[in-house]
Amino acid sequence: MKDIFNQADTMEILNQIDKLSPSSRSQWGKMDVAQLLAHCSAFNDIAMGETFPPRGWLGILIGTFVKPFFFNDKPPARNMSTIMIVEEKEFETEKVKLKQKNITSQNNGPEKCTSHPHPFFGKLTPEQWGIGLYKHLNHHLNQFGV
């Protein structure tokens, strides 16, 4: 499986991000492209141990059981429950921020991943964080047609 700690996979993601523009439109969901970039950066912050959101009750109840349905070769379902970014964001700022976070994650490698549980899935290995980062980014970039 692809993961953000593989340099070629990171380059693929960075190239996808570069194809976005302020006029990119979502094929599903409610966030605009700048909000989406901020959302993806927030997920990266969780994986790298920069933020520590608590586990929600739904994740505590079923997160561990549905983990195998995410960490596989199938794309995630559209319109899954997510952390929404509702405030306005500036596209270029968010684009630069997300690209830099992915470069840093790739350079730091799996050993810099958090040991704090994922807010939905619970405990993840560093390898699962890498796969999750890639898969989450790719899913949302596909949402915007890139």
From TrEMBL:
Protein name stated in the entry: DUF1569 domain-containing protein
InterPro entries: DinB/YfiT-like (IPR034660), DUF1569 (IPR011463)
UniProt superkingdom: Bacteria
Species of provenance: Paenibacillus lentus
Pfam families: DUF1569 (PF07606)
